[in-house]
Amino acid sequence: MTSRHRVLLIAEQANPEWVSVPLVGWSLAAALRRQADVHIVTQVRNKEAFERAGLVEGRDFTAIDTEALMAPLWKVADLLRGGKGKGWTTVTAIQSLSYPLFERMIWKRFGADIRAGKYDVVHRVTPLSPTAASSLARRCRKAGVPFVVGPLNGGIPWPREFTRERHQEKEWLSYVRGLYKAMPGIKATWANSAAIIAGSLHTRSELPASAQGRALYIPENAIDPARFADRGDKARYGALSLCFIGRLVPYKGPDIAIEAAQHLLRAGKATLTIVGDGPMMAELKALAARLGVESAVTFAGWVEHADVPKIAHGHSVFLFPSVREFGGGAVIEAMALGLVPIVADYGGPAEIVSADTGFKLPIGAREMLVAEAKAVLDEMAAGKQDLATLAARGRERIDALYSWDRKAAQVVQVYDWVTGKRADKPDFGFF
Asked: Domains in the chain and their CATH numbers?
């Protein structure tokens, strides 16, 4: 048996009780602990959640306290973002102001151990944004310890047909986001990293040519098979039971889902459940009433993440025409639960769904997405698509590539590569 890698894992955002980036940070860290000797470094706001999960500070993790700087920055971010759940580019930019302090404090605490060879690899998991420079990359390289960064994701351009939705999300700063590539700290991060894990093909394409040889593609998201497994009745594939799961905002496309399915909903040939909440709720209910489909549409509202499978198990199709998704975690979860996905052919979902597991709608104007989704649904309603087979292939794909333990195993192969245990650059077979 080969010895386990000794890893100092930097996960400033990691929390088992939250969603989005903190859940990604926690889930990957927890999975890596099963396959390597990992000590996690996180921000102090996650300390109590780590302890509730059974980890011991000092032995399993170290909490770094940067609250004196972060607390006021969070208040500034809330003021500038333009509303709850909006302006994520602005929030990321404000958060990045505190991150250099976090890494300086890490080096102060662990620099001597890194120089002494206590760790085989230093791996920064979060922040996920490629705009966050790392001073640790240079310091680790100088100490002779491989520095791995990623998964990195974000910054997928807004489709030009959805400028109005971009403005509704208060994404003003996204117009100048590309300037980060010229920052000296970013260039130094890429130059000093032994491996750069890109969580999306777009992010990998943003890396400079000099970094491409050290770049690997491993999707950002994954699932816990114990929580997201298909336990639905196989008879569900005999009916067109549609499900949308996501925040109710324009770019996610819940209105597109209703409009595309309206003729089948009116005719009693389909049902639609919309899981989620947001500023569009009243508008969507009014739309369903205006189209005469309110009896076929169920608005489940906001649901705890852990309770999503209970609702999704009874459905056959995941109708999710979102036009700007980085990772597509909801798509992975839906496929693991046995739903056949219908997604926009853009961003993270398009990288997850293959031709033999679901359907990708050509990205274009809103009217085009409605028409394309309608065409797919019509084929399904006419029995021209074998939903059970598509769902089975989807589950197989998720099981093979997208569980957290699979992802951890992929990352361990990266560790093998940067430490010289394997000579060839890993290829994980996503395409």
From this structure: 6-222+403-418 (3.40.50.2000), 234-400 (3.40.50.2000)
